[in-house]
Design goal:
The complex is a heterodimer of chains A (525) and B (202). By secondary structure, chain A is an alpha+beta fold. Chain A is 18% helix and 31% strand. In chain A, the strands form seven sheets. In chain A, strands 2-29-28-27 form a four-stranded antiparallel sheet, with no helix packed on it. The N and C termini of chain A lie far apart (99 Å). In chain B, a hairpin with a 2-residue loop joins β2 and β3. In chain B, α2 runs antiparallel to α3 and α2 packs parallel to α5. Classes of the chains: A alpha+beta (525), B alpha+beta (202). β1 of chain A pairs antiparallel with β7 of chain B, so a sheet runs across the interface. Chain A: Keywords: Cell cycle, Cell division, Mitosis, Repeat, Ubl conjugation pathway, WD repeat.
Amino acid sequence: MSQFNFENELNSVLRMDAPMSKGPSIRWQRKEECNASVNSSLNISTASKTPMKNVNRSVNNPKTPSTGSGSKTPKSQGKSKTPAKAPKTPSGGDRFIPNRNATQFDLGHFKIMNDGKGDNPELLSPSQKEFQKVMSENLNGADIMSNKIISYKNKAPSAPEGYQNNLRVLYSSCKSPVSTAKKTTRNIPQFPERILDAPDIVDDYYLNLLDWSVTNQLAVCLGGSVYLWNAESGDINQLMQVESQEDYIGAVSWVKEGNYLALGTSSGEVQLWDVTAGKRLRNMPGHASRVGSLAWNSYILSSGSRSGSIHHHDVRVANHHIGTLNGHTQEVCGLQWSPDGRHLASGGNDNVLNIWPAHIGSLVSETSPIYTFTQHQAAVKALAWCPWQPNLLASGGGTADRHIRFWNCSTGTCAQSVDTKSQVCALLWSKDYKELISSHGFALNQLTIWKYPSLTKVSELTGHTARVLHMAMSPDGSTVVSAGADETLRLWKCFAVDDDKKKKQQQKSSSKDSSRVLSMTSKIR
Amino acid sequence: MAATATQNAITLKGSTEIVSEFFSFGINSILYQRGIYPPETFTRQQKYGLTLLVTTDDALKNYLNEVISQVKEWLQQMTVKKLVVVIKDIDTKEVFERWQFDVECDKSVLSDGKPREKSEKEINKEICSVLRQITASVTFLPLLESACAFDLLVYTDKDLEVPDSWGEDGPQFIANSEEVRLRSFTTLLHKVDAMVAYKKTD
């Protein structure tokens, strides 16, 4: 049958050492053969005698009258139309019309039948065998034939679960020094608006040394003293200083109203200060070791300690200690109440993130967390509740983890996560944009603004020369202050809202409301 | 005088001891330097005038001891040709690095049994430079991005009787690799050439 012709011919070609069965056939023979094969195998009119077919039929005979490449035929040069061009058939159409005459059935058959048994050793010529041998020697080593390669059947124990090559942490973070941030229409200043000195700021990942009040005062702990910087006037006041040389302040937190400041000290005390009077109102001891995190929920002040316990203090009553949460085995370094006051998120150096229920008003001493998330591979310090989506919490892990994770605290699932390639020190959500900002350590010591929920980088703010330990947001939400271990505070106006836009929005909301609001705005103007 | 003379003589047993000890420290160094196991599971040890890190993990120690004691036996019989440390991805099994130690044996000692003359100090100096190179190679080897495991391959004579606890394996070559020859050392009975091959990063 014709479909074997090609195979047989090919075999005879490949076997160079085999006796030549026949030379290239004469042209008329080929022509006849061709026509006959088409006739016999395909029930198709053979009217079109395509000389092209011979090209595919016989490898022995590479002379192709159709290509015209050899310029053996002066005729084809003279004539503009070569038979192969076949201008009558529509060639440029968008439809594929199979042409049985042009289809190489015997080649197709050969390919299908020979699939997978291409390297039949019998068919190899001696030179090919030699070639294969050399290749295998090259691939498997020259002495593969004379050697045995053996290995011990019991394989080596694998590294402990969750272990990550330290070098990876070290090197992969510098892989993309060029920021991959996407351009946005909003202009984000790449340089800090202001740089303030923060001498003696404690370079400790586990503390929370920065907070900005609604009254526009920034509280900063520098070693053993607390300074207040008035963001409007630029005045600096020293609020207090600890008596002992060894002690320092580990945490600050403003009450929501902005008139009281809570401090956590290295000796385990929680203090309450009236900033207008500059006086200490209360001292609430109780922790066994230093207090590195504080969070307010109206009159409840929660404090996290190095001992791993979290205390709730009711600051109104004499017997302030109203509850203890024991969910961490190591230092509590992140503590945040949700905006609605229903959940408390706490992150510890034990890589655990706990979500606690609120039990305000009831004296509950022993509660267990609603959820315990253990996905982080390092200390969880950076915590931030989303202002526009209730129960959405963002948390960032330390050097060995480097992920920001997003948690749905009503279902207890991890909604998203992103590898930041650097230690996450602090996280803040923007009030005006659907964005959040994270501050990082090695290698770039940058602040990164992320779009949520797409988690694309909007911008990267660099400038700090050491890790950016803390962040706080101005009451209007336009400015972020970052405190670095390089002893500087930098103010970034990265969430500035266009004034016109804001006015328009205000007008919109006011026109919707009743006349009472209108009268209010008229009063302002 | 007699004491120094015996110290400079290297017998087959002594040579085997030296080479297998080198393998033990060499493998430990590779595992530490390439971060295959957590660095906190290693402890410092003074050897060859260097501070070398050796594992404290019991399971790993057992494994290495068993392999090396077997290799030692073959070293003595002079049937070992190569020892290869293969570093590969735990999940995909893709080979990232191959640390190859070619062993050339002077088989004439099997018949004549004569010790060779070379001072231990000199050998240690050579070993020291090989181990230094292993440590230094971290600087040019590409980063192992994913979690990796290692395997030890031993090339032996074709006619060797393989113990039950050992099985035949493939050479586990790296596709598209770059090779760096390291130094070698010799006890005059065993000559060890070191080489590292790693996956080319494009």
